[in-house]
C-alpha cells in the first residue's frame, strides 16, 4: 500500500461566483481500521484563504504548521495577508512541484479519481454560494461512498466576501 | 510490469457502461483503442451482441476480449441448435461467469458489463470482475473511466440495497431518453479526465421493439 493511502482522505475545492467552497471527508484510518471520525483536513490560513491537505495525516499536520509559521512571518513583515496566488507559490516551493491555479475545481486524496468524475459531471461555472454548497456536498458524498478509505461524514466550508459557512454533512458511516 | 519477460497482457483502455430500465437496457462504450500513451484507433467497437436481447460490453486487453466474445458467440450458437431458441440474458450471464472462472489461473484480462432484457422483458445489467464474480445490478461501469463514472451513476440512479426486505427492483424509473442522456453526460465527463476514454461513444439500446445503435462524438484529445 502506498504511503499516501495509509490514512485515507478526500479533499475537494470549487470556484463559484464571488465565492468558493472547500470540503473534505472526516475519516482518519490506519490502513483498514478507522481510528477517528472527526479528523480535520481543511485549515484556515487567513479569512479568505483555506487549505485542504490530503495524504499522510502526520505530514498534512506538519505541513500546515509550517505554512502557518511562514504566513505569520509574512504578516509581520508585510503587515497584510498573503494573496492566494502567492500562497500557492509558497506551497509549491515547499513541495518541489509546479502549482496550477484551477478555474473550476481541484481534487485530492484516495478518492481523487471518483472526485474527478463527480465534479466534472456536476460542476458548472458561476454558481452562487447555496448552489455551490449543494454541488460540492453531493460530489463529495457520491465519491467517498465509492472509496473504502475515506468517508465517515463530510465537512464543507463556503466562503463569500461577507461570511463563512461551515457545515458537517451526514454520510454513510462505513 | 513489462520489464518481466513473462507479462503477456496489455491494457487497451476504454470504458463501458450499462443502465437497466423497466422495459429497456442501455449499453454504451467508447470506441478508442490505446496502448501506453498512443492511440491505435479511434473507431473500435467494444460491444458484442450475443443474442437478440443480450449485449456484452468489455474493456481491457482487446486480444483476450476478442477471444472471449468469439467463445461466447460460438456457445450461444450451439445453444440455439440444441434448444431451438436464443439464450436469455440471465443464462448468458451465468455462462460468461463460468467461462471467466474456467481461466481462473490465466485470466481473460477483460472487464465486462452484460446488459439486456430478462425473460420477463425487464431490463437487466450484470457486472463482472476478471475471473467471473458477478452480480445483477441496476447499472454499472467498467474500464479505465469506471471510477470516475460510478459515483455519478450512484448519485443519479440510487440503487436500492440488496439487504432490503421486501426486495426492491434494481431497475431505474428513468425513461429511455433520460437514461441515454445520462450516459452521454457521464461519458463527456469521463472523456475530460481520463486519457484512455474518448473519440466516439457507441450506444446500444435493447427494448421489446428490438435493438438499435447510435454514435455520439466525444473529445478526440
Automatic annotation (TrEMBL), chain A:
**What are the entry keywords?**
Cytoplasm, Nucleus, Proteasome
Q: Any signal peptide, and if so, which residues?
A: none
Assigned GO CC terms:
cytoplasm; nucleus; proteasome core complex, beta-subunit complex
Tell where it localizes: Nucleus
One Pfam assignment: Proteasome
* Highest taxon of source: Eukaryota
What are its GO biological-process terms? proteasome-mediated ubiquitin-dependent protein catabolic process
Q: Summarize the subunit comment.
A: The 26S proteasome consists of a 20S proteasome core and two 19S regulatory subunits. The 20S proteasome core is composed of 28 subunits that are arranged in four stacked rings, resulting in a barrel-shaped structure. The two end rings are each formed by seven alpha subunits, and the two central rings are each formed by seven beta subunits. The catalytic chamber with the active sites is on the inside of the barrel.
Write down what this protein is called: Proteasome subunit beta
Q: Which organism is it from?
A: Eleusine coracana subsp. coracana
TrEMBL record, chain B:
* Family label: Belongs to the peptidase T1B family.
Q: Which InterPro entries match?
A: Ntn_hydrolases_N, Proteasome_bsu_CS, Proteasome_sua/b, Proteasome_suB-type
Name of a matching Pfam family: Proteasome
| Cytoplasm found in the keyword field | yes
Protein name from the UniProt record:
Proteasome subunit beta
Q: Which SUPFAM superfamilies match?
A: N-terminal nucleophile aminohydrolases (Ntn hydrolases)
The UniProt entry lists the main location of this chain as cytoplasm
What job does the chain carry out?
Component of the proteasome, a multicatalytic proteinase complex which is characterized by its ability to cleave peptides with Arg, Phe, Tyr, Leu, and Glu adjacent to the leaving group at neutral or slightly basic pH. The proteasome has an ATP-dependent proteolytic activity. Non-catalytic component of the proteasome, a multicatalytic proteinase complex which is characterized by its ability to cleave peptides with Arg, Phe, Tyr, Leu, and Glu adjacent to the leaving group at neutral or slightly basic pH. The proteasome has an ATP-dependent proteolytic activity.
Keywords of the record, alphabetical order, are: Cytoplasm, Nucleus, Proteasome
Q: What are the subcellular locations of this protein?
A: Cytoplasm; Nucleus
Amino acid at each position: 500500500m502506498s504511503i499516501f493511502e495509509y490514512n485515507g482522505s478526500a479533499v475537494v475545492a470549487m470556484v463559484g461566483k464571488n465565492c468558493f467552497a472547500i470540503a473534505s471527508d472526516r475519516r482518519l484510518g490506519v490502513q483498514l481500521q478507522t481510528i477517528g471520525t472527526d479528523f480535520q483536513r481543511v485549515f484556515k490560513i487567513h479569512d479568505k484563504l483555506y487549505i485542504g491537505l490530503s495524504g499522510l495525516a502526520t505530514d498534512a499536520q506538519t505541513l500546515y504548521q509550517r505554512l502557518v509559521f511562514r504566513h505569520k512571518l509574512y504578516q509581520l513583515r508585510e503587515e497584510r495577508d498573503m494573496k492566494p496566488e502567492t500562497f500557492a507559490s509558497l506551497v509549491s516551493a515547499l513541495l518541489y512541484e509546479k502549482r496550477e491555479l484551477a478555474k473550476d475545481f481541484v481534487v485530492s486524496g484516495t478518492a481523487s479519481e471518483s472526485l474527478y468524475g463527480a465534479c466534472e459531471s456536476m460542476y458548472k461555472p458561476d454558481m452562487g454560494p447555496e448552489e455551490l454548497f449543494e454541488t460540492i456536498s453531493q460530489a463529495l458524498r457520491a465519491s467517498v461512498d465509492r472509496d473504502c478509505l475515506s468517508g465517515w461524514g463530510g465537512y464543507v466550508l463556503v466562503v463569500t466576501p461577507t461570511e463563512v459557512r461551515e457545515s458537517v454533512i451526514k454520510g454513510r458511516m462505513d | 510490469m513489462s520489464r518481466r519477460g513473462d507479462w503477456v497482457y496489455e491494457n487497451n483502455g476504454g470504458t463501458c457502461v450499462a443502465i437497466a430500465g423497466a422495459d429497456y437496457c442501455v449499453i454504451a462504450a467508447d470506441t478508442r483503442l490505446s496502448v501506453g500513451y498512443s492511440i491505435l484507433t479511434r473507431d473500435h467497437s467494444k460491444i458484442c451482441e450475443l443474442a437478440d436481447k443480450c449485449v456484452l460490453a468489455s474493456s481491457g486487453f482487446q486480444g483476450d476480449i476478442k477471444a472471449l466474445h468469439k467463445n461466447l458467440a460460438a456457445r450461444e450458437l450451439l445453444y440455439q441448435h440444441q434448444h431451438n431458441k436464443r439464450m436469455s440474458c440471465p443464462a448468458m450471464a451465468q455462462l460468461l461467469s463460468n467461462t471467466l472462472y474456467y481461466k481462473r489461473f490465466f485470466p481473460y484480462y477483460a472487464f465486462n458489463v452484460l446488459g439486456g432484457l430478462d425473460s420477463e422483458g425487464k431490463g437487466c445489467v450484470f457486472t463482472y470482475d476478471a475471473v467471473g464474480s458477478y452480480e445483477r445490478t441496476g447499472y454499472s461501469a467498467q474500464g479505465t473511466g469506471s471510477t470516475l463514472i460510478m459515483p455519478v451513476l450512484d448519485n443519479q440512479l440510487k440503487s436500492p440495497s440488496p439487504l432490503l426486505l421486501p426486495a426492491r427492483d434494481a431497475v431505474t424509473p428513468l425513461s429511455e431518453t433520460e437514461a441515454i442522456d445520462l450516459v452521454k453526460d457521464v461519458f463527456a465527463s469521463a472523456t475530460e479526465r481520463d486519457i484512455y476514454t474518448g473519440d466516439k461513444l457507441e450506444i446500444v439500446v435493447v427494448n421489446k421493439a428490438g435493438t438499435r445503435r447510435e454514435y455520439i462524438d466525444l473529445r478526440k484529445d
